[in-house]
Write a structure and sequence with these properties.
single chain, alpha+beta, Sulfite Oxidase, Chain A, domain 2, 2 domains, 5 helices, about 15% helix, OxRdtase_Mopterin-bd_sf
Length: about 250
């Protein structure tokens, strides 16, 4: 577990995991014991919805034990949902709203987002808990394009992001949101963003720790000040530049 991020105010002795963390280590003997018991003996365990690549997404979505998070993972990713369950959405029912301090509020369907100009970038993904996935492709609409289409009003200073899990939130300053390496991502690893990866649409903030890249994105609200996101309320840095925040010295991802 990383040390408490500096300048973030009061913090618990051990801050909770970020949205993509595996959680606390589990001893080998305990892991083998739990695997031996099987799912029938663990139905009362909390729902963690952890999953990895290599086809384990569907399994983890239905796994109330979180044991799928202990399995080997060739893709390098780890997942954590702060909600007990997250509905799946697709072209028929997905909607992304852009509102707040804008002249032209809008609602986008998945097909409408796909019809906009797409940007592809390949960057390392860095989690604040230490793991890193190199050279990960993301593709989607630049957030700046959606903001320009909405017409940001004078006095706007920040952007708040909400998610259809009903719990998670994030924010960026307006200058950060307008960077060319911030995407409303529709594709990841050269395929559609899966449900377990936060699809069908997630935020991707390339130069910041991965907790800034909110999953299951459903709302973009332009505001007059930065509102700390879910994990930032629990101690993580609001300005989460890789290698320059949260008390870490990781190599930058850009």
């Amino acid at each position: 577990m990383n040390s408490p991020p500096p300048g973030a105010g009061p913090e618990p002795a051990e801050p909770g995991p970020d949205p993509d963390a595996v959680g606390a280590p589990v001893g080998r003997r305990l892991v083998l014991t739990m695997l031996g018991l099987g799912a029938a003996g663990l139905v009362a365990a909390p729902v963690l919805q952890r999953t990895m690549e290599s086809g384990l997404g569907a399994l983890a979505d239905k796994d109330p034990t979180g044991l799928t998070g202990l399995l080997p993972n060739g893709g390098g990713f780890r997942y954590y949902s702060v909600a007990s369950s997250v509905p799946s959405k697709g072209a028929a029912d997905y909607r992304l709203t852009v509102d707040g301090l804008v002249d032209r509020p809008a609602t986008y369907t998945l097909d409408a987002l796909k019809a906009l100009p797409q940007t592809r970038m390949v960057r390392d993904v860095q989690c604040v808990t230490g793991w890193r996935v190199p050279e990960t492709p993301f593709e989607g609409v630049r957030l700046s394009a959606l903001l320009d289409a909405a017409g940001v009003r004078p006095g706007a200073k920040a952007v708040r992001f909400t998610c259809f899990d009903g719990t998670y939130s994030e924010s960026l300053t307006l200058d950060q949101a307008r960077r060319g390496d911030v995407l409303v991502a529709l594709r990841m690893q050269d395929g559609p963003v899966s449900h377990s990866h936060g699809g069908p649409v997630r935020l991707y903030v390339a130069p910041m720790y991965f907790y800034k890249s909110a999953k299951w994105l459903s709302g973009i609200t332009v505001t007059d000040s930065v509102r700390p996101g879910y994990w930032e309320e629990l101690g993580y840095d609001v300005d989460a530049w890789v290698g320059r925040s949260n008390g870490r010295d990781d190599a930058p991802t850009t």
